[in-house]
Design goal:
The chain has a single domain, classed as Chloroperoxidase, CATH 1.10.489. The protein has a three-stranded antiparallel β-sheet. The chain has twelve helices and nine strands. It is globular, with a radius of gyration of 20 Å. It is mainly alpha-helical and 381 residues long. Helices cover 40% and strands 6% of the residues. Bound molecules: protoporphyrin IX containing FE (HEM) and 2-acetamido-2-deoxy-beta-D-glucopyranose (NAG) (5 copies). Protoporphyrin IX containing FE (HEM) binds next to helix 3, helix 4, helix 5 and helix 8. The site of one 2-acetamido-2-deoxy-beta-D-glucopyranose has 6 residues, from helix 7. It comes from Coprinopsis marcescibilis (Agaric fungus). This is Cloroperoxidase. One of its GO terms (molecular function) is peroxidase activity. Belongs to the chloroperoxidase family. Its cofactor is heme b.
Length: 381
């Protein structure tokens, strides 16, 4: 990941723009002061966010490791992050190989490359854009962390992208460590060994929903016991369960049927999680899908949204941002607390684009929760 001195200054609150440097067009604007926004926003190439693409016309199994999408190792400067699905799509050229993309590109890529369902794709991408992307340029980095080197002690300067801790990226990932332990986005061999161990013990050598249920619970117990700053609130409570189901639905070759369905072999799993690469000759899922089974994983060992209270083993329930059992509260607080906290009083194109993207996100909520009213944090639009 590149070191970007300008971004580092932004995070230090000592921002000072010069005509020779540019604010990275994918870096989020959330958390910047009104004065910083006044300086930065005019330098950006502002877009009007287009409506999200619909589902593709063909949604069956299909060879996706094809000759038009060869795997290539990321080059220096290419961004990769905590999501094995998006990392793989970038390394095969379904997404721009540099790891920076528009919501439209991401929705099209996850549909084409994995048969991710349209609703799930829209919901994931607009929630991510609102907290980790740049809503003015309509760009999101799938990695996007920049670190200020040279400071003593080293100061992490997170400029956004999906590595942005406590927004979309979070604790208790299956194959990535908690941010508290230093590296929150890279494949971790120790955690991978645990993934293999659980797949052997509960899945007879395959990762399935039963394995996902046990491993998800175990990762939560681990973080409660080891990470004094463990948090799993709101969006993270939902995604922690959804992400444990995604490999079962989308990493299994679409030609597998009968008793092989929903059983992910470990060689394929490692190819996605570690190598960001399709298994050779991979066919995408035979029908659109995503987080199916997340409810089963949750109900196997229900854990409320919550956090440790500054020390290990001090878990306290905290449903102030909702969670998997209260998705309307999650939506309301996500908009009214999380997004509004990042952007307290936006103006101009920033306000316009926030309102448009909040509308695209609400559409995904309304289709499942028709009685959950839309929230307009900045007043009527
Ligand atoms: C639609 C756009 C998507 C967005 C914005 C997105 C974003 C993310 C983010 C931010 C994380 C990190 C959360 C964390 O563990 O801290 C993540 C994890 C994950 N994503 Fe995605 N993702 C998307 C699509 C996909 C697709 C299509 C797949 C599978 C084909 C996928 C599979 C996964 C898995 C398995 C994890 C969990 C990794 C782990 O726990 O080690 N995602 N995603
Ligand atoms: C995430 O990991 C990176 C790389 O190890 C680290 O520099 C950064 O501080 C971590 N983020 C947080 C919020 O801890
Ligand atoms: C991987 O995770 C383990 C267990 O949480 C941790 O002890 C180890 O330091 C991590 N390794 C790296 C390279 O971050
Ligand atoms: C997962 O695999 C184990 C071992 O084969 C099996 O007992 C269990 O029923 C499977 N679970 C699912 C949901 O397929
Ligand atoms: C959390 O910690 C604070 C301060 O240390 C303490 O006052 C509070 O009672 C704790 N809450 C719970 C539920 O343990
Ligand atoms: C949003 O937050 C404001 C300020 O805290 C509050 O007045 C308003 O009732 C909240 N709206 C919703 C829908 O919760």
């Amino acid at each position: 990941m590149r070191f970007n001195p300008l971004a580092a200054f932004v995070a230090l609150g000592a921002f000072c723009i010069s005509t020779t440097t540019a604010f990275p067009p994918y870096a989020p604007l959330g958390g910047l002061s009104a004065r910083q926004l006044e300086e930065i926003v005019p330098t950006l190439d502002a877009k009007v966010p287009p409506p999200p693409p619909g589902p593709p016309s063909f949604t069956g199994a299909q060879l996706v490791d094809d000759k038009d999408h060869p795997w290539r190792a990321p080059r220096p400067g290419d961004q990769r992050g905590p999501c094995p699905g998006l990392n793989t799509l970038a390394s095969h050229g379904y997404l721009p190989r540099n790891g920076v993309a528009t919501p439209t590109q991401i929705i099209q890529a996850v549909q084409e490359g994995f048969n991710f369902d349209n609703l799930g794709a829209r919901s994931a991408v607009y929630s991510a854009l609102l907290v980790d992307g740049n809503v003015v340029t309509d760009l999101l980095s799938i990695g996007g962390k920049t670190r200020l080197t040279g400071a003593n002690p080293p100061t992490p300067a997170i400029v956004g992208g999906l590595n942005n801790h406590r927004t979309f990226e979070g604790d208790v990932s299956l194959t990535r460590g908690d941010a508290f332990f230093g590296d929150n986005h890279s494949f971790n061999q120790t955690l991978w060994d645990q993934f293999v161990d659980f797949s052997n013990r509960f899945g007879n050598g395959f990762y399935n929903i039963t394995v996902a249920s046990e491993l998800r619970f175990h990762r939560i117990q681990q973080s409660i016991a080891e990470n004094p700053e463990f948090t799993m609130l709101g969006l993270r409570h939902l995604t922690a369960y959804g992400e444990a189901a995604l490999p079962v639905n989308l990493f299994v070759d679409g030609r597998k049927t009968g008793s092989y369905k929903g059983q992910l072999d470990l060689e394929s799993a490692r190819s996605f999680f570690r190598d960001m690469r399709y298994p050779k000759g991979f066919f995408r899922a035979a029908q659109p899908g995503g987080g199916e089974g997340a409810d089963v994983i949750f109900l196997a060992h229900p854990t409320s949204p919550g956090r440790n209270n500054g020390t290990v083993n001090s878990f306290v329930v905290d449903d102030s941002l909702g969670g998997i059992l209260d998705p309307c509260k999650f939506y309301t607080e996500f908009v009214n607390t999380t997004v509004r906290g990042l952007y307290p009083s936006p103006t101009g194109v920033l306000r316009r684009n926030l309102d448009i993207n909040l509308g695209f996100f609400y559409d995904t909520i309304a289709s499942g929760l028709p009685d959950c009213p839309q929230v307009f944090p900045y007043g009527p639009v």
